[in-house]
Amino acid sequence: xxxxxxxxxxxxxxxxxxxxxxxxxxxxxxxxxxxxxxxxxxxxxxxxxxxxxxxxxxxxxxxxxxxxxxxxxxxxxxxxxxxxxxxxxxxxxxxxxxxxxxxxxxxxxxxxxxxxxxxxxxxxxxxxxxxxxxxxxxxxxxxxxxxxxxxxxxxxxxxxxxxxxxxxxxxxxxxxxxxxxxxxxxxxxxxxxxxxxxxxxxxxxxxxxxxxxxxxxxxxxxxxxxxxxxxxxxxxxxxxxxxxxxxxxxxxxxxxxxxxxxxxxxxxxxxxxxxxxxxxxxxxxxxxxxxxxxxxxxxxxxxxxxxxxxxxxxxxxxxxxxxxxxxxxxxxxxxxxxxxxxxxxxxxxxxxxxxxxxxxxxxxxxxxxxxxxxxxxxxxxxxxxxxxxxxxxxxxxxxxxxxxxxxxxxxxxxxxxxxxxxxxxxxxxxxxxxxxxxxxxxxxxxxxxxxxxxxxxxxxxxxxxxxxxxxxxxxxxxxxxxxxxxxxxxxxxxxxxxxxxxxxxxxxxxxxxxxxxxxxxxxxxxxxxxxxxxxxxxxxxxxxxxxxxxxxxxxxxxxxxxxxxxxxxxxxxxxxxxxxxxxxxxxxxxxxxxxxxxxxxxxxxxxxxxxxxxxxxxxxxxxxxxxxxxxxxxxxxxxx
Length: 640
Ligand SMILES: Nc1ncnc2c1ncn2[C@H]1C[C@H](O)[C@@H](COP(=O)(O)OP(=O)(O)OP(=O)(O)O)O1
Fold this sequence. Notes:
This protein is α/β, with parallel strands linked by helices. It folds into three domains: 73-288, P-loop containing nucleotide triphosphate hydrolases (Rossmann fold, 3-Layer(aba) Sandwich); 296-488, Rossmann fold; 496-600, Winged helix-like DNA-binding domain superfamily/Winged helix DNA-binding domain (Arc Repressor Mutant, subunit A, Orthogonal Bundle), CATH 1.10.10.10. Residues 99, 102-103, 106, 123, 125-131, 265, 389 line the site of 2'-deoxyadenosine 5'-triphosphate.
């Protein structure tokens, strides 16, 4: 009797906790709604502020704190060609650097820097930041001092400058005495034997001799400009803090008349504020290029457990939409690089593998053949990245998802550097989530970042650009996308599906497994739910009628929404992943609680759920047999 009374009490308390949790859910939903409204209001206000500033006269009496350093009209003046140095800039752009025109913001940055303004330039990787100090260096008296964190970056730059006959030298911890002596002497030589002098921040911090030579050069007006590459390294809030960068404030204190140019591909406004203080520059002009690559088309395709089907799909794309065009297929592992390349070869596609453990000679041979268009496709791990600067890459296909959206942006961003349209397609497979998890398990926020990538892939109703933009502190809305992603092209093509009952079944299954002291890997969970597990389970649980892809999509959704979570255990050889109940799973006990997911309406259940699947432009789907025959004679000859 007493036991029954106690059970009633517990049940009553549980009900009350349930309703409180439900209330919190509602409040969270309301807060999220409010956040969206406020963000949109904030953007509208920022727009109004910008317009008001534009309308104000340039010599306005705004207080220094309220007004931006320069208004839009003033800024646009620096895009002009009527500066005394313009002809020289243009001549060297063509004759020395062999480039036909400036890229967006380059001329503005150069004009500002040549006008002796201090400048922070935030531009995505590969957009041409270096030219913004290299070209002014060539057109100015004396030399430009460049602070770079890595010796390898310096070496690349010097190699490039030598190839275009621009004298550049570097000084770092491993420079020989003789070399250092020559460089030090050159710094005060009025004939300016070097136009660019690259040094590490440690050199500035530790070499008194260097500082005294720079002082002499400054007094002789030979130090024309200071460029601080990877300027975000100054700030502890940046992602790559370098203690020696903290000491670079000495440059502006010692050489106040020399314009400073800080360059970075990644810095929020608070990081830049911090850099401003550390470098002792007062109110620099900040130029920020949008990270939105408008010429890239983003698409997600669902990969089922049959790996060969996705390879056939990739082969079909390369054979039709990308016929004779250059591209990269990114894979997860070295083994995958070999496997996928050989499967593509079997399908008559000349594709070379590339990964970190290959012989360096083979690596550079593959790189060279690809760069010179003798081979169109490289199947590579992310080791194929640094220094890849081919302009005409028309497609980057990810055979496996990247470990974060930031990584995906970088990797896929190797497409379309020439500004012409190019495609970025990622194949999203359920089991890949857990393969990539093993790679990021030790990283600080690795799992969270991976789940954001999964969310990007699972999404069917939001512009893919807008999902990426959040990671760069930017707003790229659906209009800015211009139908250059699959969700914008199919904007009406999704419905909401109630998955509450499915969620309850999955939770019941995991509870049953836990009661039997069994751990379920994600794949076993799907198997068991589909009635493919051990017979003892099948008797006890409600199996699902969903297709495998649907079942996987529901489980991914439950993982993203926090009804499930990943758990892992380590052996000396591998990491095992298991599915566990997540923080929100108790909410399912409440009969009024609802869980839903969005899905593509037009995609047949047997093909994909939550997929961005679209047909290749040529209209063709996979035409090759899975596991097709041996490598063709033609490909064999080309491989030799
Ligand atoms: N105006 C231009 N026209 C054509 N190509 C250009 C132009 N300016 C630069 N480039 C090329 C030169 C390089 O091959 C490539 C990338 O330039 P680079 O200066 O290395 O980029 P970046 O400095 O922004 O990248 P990172 O962040 O990797 O240092 O772009």
